[in-house]
Amino acid sequence: MATRIEPKVLLANERTYVSWMRMASVMGAIGSGLLAGASDHGSGQEAQGQVASGATGVARAAGLVLMPVAVLFALHAAYTYWSRNVKIQKRVYTDIANETVPLLLGGVLVVSLTSVLLLDIIMGDTISLK
After folding, report:
1. What is the pTM of this model?
2. Which of 92, 109, 125, 129 has CA atoms 20 to 30 A from the CA of 41?
């Protein structure tokens, strides 16, 4: 006897996917904005007093840290959506909730942002990542 898949189950899976992808997109946009801003100001404009080279280096470092984290978030979102969709189609509702990977990704995000903060505090005016 075939059981009917409730639309709310499929929609919940899609909603979770969209939420994770939104977060990855925001992090990617911030990271690429920091990289673009750092490269714009690294072309001699700091001599005019607009941006110090230390701020440019820290912005570039923050962008370089955020971009891979954003890619990890996007890959996790895609894999989770796909694996849950397969389980839903096969009507296997065990082991759908994975609590380990989101905690690891959150930890990676916290460590990366903390490292950028410490880099700014310690090396503030002297850093240059060209």
Report:
1. 0.75
2. 109
